[in-house]
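Support request from a user on the community tier.

User writes: "When I paste my structure tokens into the form, the page sometimes reloads and wipes my input. The last time it worked, I copied everything first. Here is what I submitted, just in case something in the input itself triggers the reload:"
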């Protein structure tokens, strides 16, 4: 078990995962990462992260389907899920059950603020 709180990032863009990792590391948060929805669902069960960031548009799956499965599963339904997209469809994400929405592009400050709000504590 890693000593730092974990955040699961389900994102198929390597550069964006690298950015998330760098920002989270500076805040003493560790990151578990998946590049598709199926792997993300497995990691959510294995790691029970504090929160999950999930891209809406994944290469082999739909982020909304991943969200639906996470929220339908008693083992993962209490984990806050933040949907991430450049499509600015925050209303659709929240209606689908997301706890929050992060619109691309974003700043590190916006990202950290969202984490703090979602977790309900300083990050």
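"...and here is what came back when it finally went through:"
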């Amino acid at each position: 078990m890693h000593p730092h709180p974990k955040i699961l990032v389900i994102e198929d863009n390597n550069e964006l995962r690298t950015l998330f990792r760098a920002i989270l590391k500076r805040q003493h948060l560790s990151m578990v990462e998946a590049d598709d929805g199926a792997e993300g669902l497995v990691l959510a069960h294995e790691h029970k992260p504090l929160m999950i960031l999930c891209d809406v548009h994944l290469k082999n799956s739909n982020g909304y389907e991943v969200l639906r499965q996470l929220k339908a599963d008693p083992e993962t339904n209490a984990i806050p899920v933040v949907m991430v997209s450049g499509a600015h469809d925050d209303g659709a994400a929240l209606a689908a059950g997301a706890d929050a929405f992060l619109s691309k592009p974003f700043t590190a400050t916006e990202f950290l603020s969202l984490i703090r709000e979602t977790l309900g504590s300083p990050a």
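Agent notes: The reload is a front-end session timeout and is unrelated to the input. Strands lie at 6-10, 30-34, 51-55, 81-85, 100-103. The radius of gyration is 13 Å. Escalated to web team.
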